[in-house]
Specification:
The structure holds 2 protein chains of 2 kinds. By secondary structure, chain A is mostly beta strands. Helices cover 0% and strands 54% of the residues of chain A. By secondary structure, chain B is an all-beta fold. The chains are: A mainly beta, B mainly beta. At the A-B interface, strand 5, strand 9 and strand 10 of A face strand 4 and strand 5 of B.
């Protein structure tokens, strides 16, 4: 079974750094783009960016470029989303999502809730 | 970026009804459109890709149509499990933007 399993909920303070993970299984990790989608409380879905694990090519939404880093580890079939300095406005649930370019997302992680508060 | 606009933002319907949700792109995207179902506290679920193709395991009461800038998601014979928020997403060009969502509530 193809699965994307994300790391657990986090509570952080503004200014702290964080990396959350998405461990995949059941399919060839390097064959698909994988990315991240944000959902702030009570709001809609926002596409953040994607990475192609085979060569680490990364594409970001302009809304998130410079604010986050997406990476992938082929050896563990895991994708990551990282912040160097969190803000309260980063409070949201983050979903990892397997992409097929042109066809959208066909598989989702269960979500990681991030709360940033002083 | 391509802007996606869904209508209505919310609607109510009864079990057994047929409902249609619209999605409009700010520029032509051919058939590069996907639909997702989202329930509170759950991960989104992929329903349709390339405007009209059902993802594996999605019931046939869901259907999608459209091309260019105007698209629709139709749900026939609504079931209790179908009450959720639905999002369209253009997959024509990066960033793959979502519509703002349509909340389908039970009447």
């Amino acid at each position: 079974e193809e699965e994307l399993v994300q790391s657990g909920a986090e509570v952080k303070k503004p200014g702290e750094s964080l990396r959350i993970s998405c461990k995949t299984s059941g399919y060839m990790f390097i064959d698909y783009w994988i990315g991240w989608v944000r959902q702030r409380p009570g709001k809609g879905l926002e596409w953040m960016g994607i990475i192609y694990p085979a060569d680490s090519e990364t594409k970001y939404s302009p809304s998130f470029e410079g604010q986050i880093t997406i990476s992938a580890d082929k050896s563990t079939a895991t994708a990551f989303l990282e912040w160097s300095s969190l803000k309260a406005s980063d409070t949201a649930t983050y979903y990892c999502a397997r992409h097929r370019l042109g066809l959208g997302i066909d598989n989702w992680g269960q979500g990681t809730l991030l709360t940033v508060s002083s | 970026d391509i802007q996606m606009t869904q209508s209505p933002s919310s609607m109510s319907a009864s079990v057994g009804d047929t409902v249609t949700i619209s999605c409009r792109a700010s520029q032509a995207i051919s058939s590069w459109l996907a639909w997702y179902q989202k329930k509170p506290g759950k991960a989104p679920k992929a329903l349709i890709f390339a405007a009209s193709n059902l993802q594996s395991g999605v019931p046939s009461r869901f259907s999608g149509s459209g091309s260019g800038t105007d698209f629709t998601l139709t749900i026939r014979s609504l079931q209790p499990d179908d009450f959720a928020t639905y999002y369209c997403q253009q997959t024509d060009s990066l960033p793959y933007t979502f519509g703002q969502g349509t909340k389908l509530e039970i009447k």
